[in-house]
Specification:
Blueprint lengths: L3 E2 L2 H23 L4 E7 L3 H16 L3 E7 L5 H13 L5 E4 L9 H6 L12 H8 L8 H14 L6 E5 L6 H10 L3 E5 L6 H6 L3 E4 L17 E4 L3 E4 L5 E4 L4 H7 L2 E2 L6 H20 L11
Parallel strand pairs: 1-11, 2-3, 2-4, 5-6, 5-7, 7-8, 8-11
Antiparallel strand pairs: 9-10
Helix pairs in contact: 1-10, 2-10, 6-7, 6-10
The protein binds NADPH dihydro-nicotinamide-adenine-dinucleotide phosphate (NDP) and 5,10-Methenyltetrahydrofolate (GUE).
The site of 5,10-Methenyltetrahydrofolate (GUE) has 19 residues, from helix 2, strand 4, helix 6 and helix 10.
């Protein structure tokens, strides 16, 4: 167990504290309260936990929280009508539609209906394009949280070998863009990658965003590598209670890595902290107010 444990929970609390300070100042100086709307369609138990945590932490940061829980059978037209209302609502500065959506809803269509200025997830095609071309964008929360942890640990990432396992639009691809933006040499691995252990062994930085419990093993790692475990997998243990595990086999990875994020308490809390930071940033941009410093790329 040689690796330093990266305390995402503590780092996220610091980020939320900075958000709360800036929100308090904004309110005192302008009377404006940043507002976040979260839309949940259907009843996914895991999503409900996140939605509840988001709502609670939004209020704790001094922001307004608007929760919209829609029936699993909600039509696309009704969901689009809600998004149009939220787009037009001046009290709402950030809109998050919890993914995945039920199968009858076209998530690309729904996400691209969000006003890009309110797209605090950074999933709208125009934010994706801005990020990919190095322009000011709304940056996806999970990759942003991972980048903050890496910059805090290493200072400059320039020239480091980074391997991102996973190529989803919500984690893998934007993570690779951010690492490229910080001048890493980036490899994106996925389910068709040949000899994944050999690819991972090159990496100074490993980002695991696969959705397969404990897949990455310690003997895949270059000794001293930094491991960022994005995976959130619920596994049933004998007691009948759920246990959360990441995409990395923590015990074997911690023996070889230089630093590693735990699950829970690693990337997850950073995702929510960055969501609050993005909501504040969106609010400041919408109102011509100075943005908080150091809370986006
Ligand atoms: N901590 C947090 O805040 C968050 C955590 N998560 C968690 O992160 C994980 C990934 O999420 P997400 O990106 O949405 O997942 P997706 O299922 O959308 O993407 C998974 C990716 O992993 C790749 N993959 C699957 N199996 C393998 C394999 N055997 N070897 C190599 N690559 C493989 C897939 O490849 P291919 O494209 O070829 O199919 C795909 O690109 C999940 O556990 C999720 O719960 C997600 C969001 C936020
Ligand atoms: N539009 C959209 N944006 C998202 O950002 C988004 C999404 N949809 N769908 C689902 C995934 C998953 N996700 C997490 C957020 C917080 C924790 C988190 O706080 N995790 C805690 C533990 C939470 C627990 O105990 O369940 C931790 O890792 O310590 C985890 C996962 C955001 N996602």
């Amino acid at each position: 167990m040689g690796a330093a444990v990266i305390d995402g929970k503590a780092f996220a609390a610091k980020v939320r504290g900075r958000v709360a300070d800036h929100v308090a100042r904004l309110k005192a100086e302008t009377g404006i309260t940043p507002g976040l709307a979260v839309v949940l369609v259907g009843e996914d138990p895991a999503s409900e936990v996140y939605v509840r945590n988001k709502g609670k932490q939004t209020l704790e940061a001094g922001m307004a929280s608007f929760e919209h829980k829609l029936d699993a059978t909600t039509s696309e037209a009704d969901l689009l009508a809600l998004i149009a209302r939220l787009n037009a609502d001046p009290a709402v500065h950030g809109i998050l539609v919890q993914l995945p959506l039920p199968g009858h809803l076209d998530s690309d269509l729904v996400i691209n209906a969000i006003d890009p200025a309110k797209d605090v997830d950074g999933f709208h095609i125009s934010n994706v394009g801005l990020l990919g071309t190095g322009q000011k964008a709304m940056v996806p929360c999970t990759p942003l949280g991972c980048l903050m942890l890496l910059r805090d640990l290493h200072g400059s990432l320039s020239g480091m070998e980074a391997v991102v396992i996973g190529r989803s639009n919500i984690v893998g691809k934007p993570m690779a863009q951010l690492l490229l933006g910080d001048s890493c040499t980036v490899t994106i691995a996925h389910s068709r990658t040949r000899d994944l252990p050999a690819v991972v062994r090159r990496a100074d930085i490993v980002i695991a965003a696969v959705g397969r419990p404990e897949m990455v093993k310690g003997d895949w790692l270059k000794p001293g590598a930094t491991v960022i475990d994005v995976g959130i997998n619920r596994t049933r243990v004998e007691s009948g209670k759920d246990r959360l595990v990441g995409d990395c086999d923590y015990a074997s990875c911690a023996e070889v890595a230089g630093a590693i994020t735990p699950v829970p308490g690693g990337v997850g809390p950073m995702t929510i902290a960055c969501l609050l930071a993005n909501t504040l940033t969106a609010c400041c941009r919408a109102n011509g107010q100075p943005e908080p410093e150091g809370l986006t790329v």
